[in-house]
Amino acid sequence: MAIIVDLDVQLAKHKLSVGEFAAAVGITPANIAVLKNGRAKAVRFTTLDAICRTLQCQPGDVLRWVPDDEADDG
């Protein structure tokens, strides 16, 4: 199972820096980096809610699932 976090796309759309976004969401820039780099093992619903509220988007705009064989390719 591979869950891909597309925060970079959303941050670019909204012209937000990682620091600005982290402050708006209420988590550290280091934790944003963990999410962006795909190293997160879990995301709290409260964090996902804050991300979606800040970006005015749906969870599916930030998270997507790809099958294992596609995740291995890239």
From TrEMBL:
Superkingdom assignment: Bacteria
SUPFAM superfamilies in the record: lambda repressor-like DNA-binding domains (SSF47413)
SMART domains in the cross-refs: HTH_XRE
Domain spans labelled HTH cro/C1-type: 13-62
One of the record's GO molecular function terms: DNA binding
Listed name of the protein: Transcriptional regulator
UniProt source species: Marinitenerispora sediminis
